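Hello support,

Our group uses your service weekly, and this is the first time we've seen a run hang past the timeout. The protein is Phosducin thioredoxin-like domain-containing protein. I'm not sure whether the cause is the sequence or the server load. Input pasted verbatim:
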Amino acid sequence: MSTTHPTNITTEWDDLQRKHGNLPELEPEETNEVRDARMVEVAELELLREARLEAWKKKVHAKAQTTFGTPVAITDDTFVQEVTNASKATDGSIGQGVDMENTESDEKTYNANNVQPELLSNAGKYVPVLLVDDRKESVYLQGAWIELARRYPTIKFTTGSVSRILKCDSKNTCPPASILLYFGGKCIMQTPALSILKGMSYDLTDASVEARVADALEVVLNSVSGHGGFLIRREGPSNSDSDSNSDDEERSSLKKAGNKFKREFLSRITGGKYKGDSDSDSDRESRNKTYTSWVLDRANG
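Update from on-call engineer: The timeout came from a worker crash unrelated to the input. Re-ran successfully.
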């Protein structure tokens, strides 16, 4: 017991009562060594909880998708930062090795399936690049690029001048307008931009030229070998529900019309003997029989 700050102060009478069992025994006093060890353990648990919470916040912040909505202008000075480095894998090492099961209640609300980064984020990000020249067709390409950036705001579409970014050995020649696709810090596709105009559809529709070029660009960007299509349109739930309901109603009406035509047709060729759904149980049972012997009928009757 501590002599400077005693806690279990008793009297002789209390000690005598405890000896005879009239009072409960005193709890053993905590020594300074035990108290210091307990405080150190509490401090370590608190620091560990704060570190886990901070790592969890950083991971959630890193996973948050950045929206663009418009093409990002690039130059030869910003190409590496805006395209090459932007297409590299995100930092998935933050928070790895953290035991999420031992965190506090606010951390337990985090979905355990999202602890590991997505496979696509580990590999890299798609960054399409449009390099245009001074030709008239570049106006439609730029308009289609703006349309694609509006359709897919989470994809970083970049645009720039081909003469300032792509260098040629000869001063008399100029590189053609090109479309590049970067992923994981590498260029995985490079194609002339004007070839898109030759392969686009010219059907009679209400779509604008920019929208048609954008559709053709989607096909080209999604056709890279070894990579799945990353430009996927997601329709609204309300439209999909209404379309599915209308399709179900159309199929139901066609089925009813087909059944009605079937009943009328069979009724005519059988002289009114076919009644369809209005048949009685006995008539339906007689039609389902696979025999015509009256002996078996009497035996089964």
